[in-house]
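ok new one. same drill as before - structure tokens go in, u give me an amino acid for every spot. 331 of them this time. try not to just spam alanines like last time pls lmao
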């Protein structure tokens, strides 16, 4: 097996986050799914954008956010996703490259537009996301650079992108290529509604031993296993994947790897400003340790530190010097 060129290669949605602070009343007025993520069409995206208070735009997408975190932590990363040949597509491409992430696929020249996530943040820091996937949901298998996939030590897959048919086929092919090359597969379930729609696929991949590292939060774990009790859900999955990582928001997180269990408390912060990207950055922190062969407990601690940093400000990507922050917190 050849030495990998990249630490992590991710396939995910290429979207731009549009983030605005709002009062609770606006959530009700617009009939939004408070605290959740809802898929919307382009017309609804335009309607919600018109109703938003002043907003800021930053490139997002779950897997892309995780790569941004990994890159700031010194890992070599590449992203596979699809944008349209429009302004938001140019913004996304620029932001990825400026973060040090290789992203070279050609833009889609036809409709739809580049995806966007309209995020309403209430005073308690809770985010309500409304996602128009746009061009990203048409990522075809023939857009994959299989040599790049073979060159990554870890292939990280975003559950959100499993929903549309074309990228689902592309991700299945990427899994085949990565496994043939002896690489690890990491998978994030993303959201319970994705498991509701594709849980049979995910459970089969787990049973078949396709997934090496599984990231879930406690709600996704319950949906995946059918177990309302957290520990029962952990027990149902832990023996079937080499590494299970389950996050529990303010209750911290656990990880089980080959029978070893570790736990971490949530890092204390002065104020929760915006929870957008918390899970993405937890995954980045954890993988930054895993890729370096660090202990399970240290990997979890890295995840908690990264998640705490991102929820202390607006936006889904780190703003602090993450390598310095890790050094300070880990000693």
């Amino acid at each position: 097996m050849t030495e990998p060129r990249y630490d992590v290669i991710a396939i995910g949605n290429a979207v731009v986050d549009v983030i605005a602070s709002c009062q609770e009343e606006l959530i009700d007025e617009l009939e939004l799914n408070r605290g959740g993520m809802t898929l919307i069409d382009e017309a609804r995206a335009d309607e919600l954008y018109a109703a938003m208070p002043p907003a800021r735009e930053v490139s997002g997408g779950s897997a892309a956010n995780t790569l941004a975190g990994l890159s700031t932590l010194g890992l070599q990363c590449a992203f596979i996703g699809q944008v349209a040949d429009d302004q938001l597509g140019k913004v996304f491409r620029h932001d990825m490259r400026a973060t040090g992430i290789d992203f070279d696929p050609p833009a889609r020249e036809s409709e739809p537009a580049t995806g966007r996530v309209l995020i309403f943040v209430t005073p308690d820091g809770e985010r309500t996301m409304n996602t128009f996937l746009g061009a990203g949901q048409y990522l075809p298998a023939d857009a994959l650079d299989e040599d790049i996939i073979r060159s990554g030590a870890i292939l990280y897959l975003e559950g959100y992108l499993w929903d549309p048919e074309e990228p689902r086929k592309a991700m299945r092919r990427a899994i085949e290529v990565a496994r043939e090359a002896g690489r690890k597969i990491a998978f994030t379930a993303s959201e319970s509604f994705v498991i509701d729609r594709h849980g049979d696929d995910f459970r089969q991949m787990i049973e078949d031993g396709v997934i090496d590292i599984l990231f879930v939060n406690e709600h996704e774990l319950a949906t995946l296993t059918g177990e309302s009790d957290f520990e029962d859900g952990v027990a149902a999955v832990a023996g079937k994947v080499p590494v299970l990582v389950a996050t529990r928001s303010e209750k911290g997180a656990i990880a089980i790897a080959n029978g070893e269990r570790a736990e971490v408390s949530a890092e204390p912060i002065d104020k929760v400003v915006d929870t957008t990207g918390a899970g993405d950055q937890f995954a980045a922190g954890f993988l930054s340790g895993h890729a370096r062969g660090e202990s399970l407990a240290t990997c979890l601690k890295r995840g908690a530190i990264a998640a705490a940093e991102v929820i202390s400000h607006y936006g889904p990507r780190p703003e602090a010097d993450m390598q310095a922050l890790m050094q300070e917190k880990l000693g």
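The mean pLDDT is 94. and btw The CA atoms of residues 175 and 313 lie 35 Å apart.
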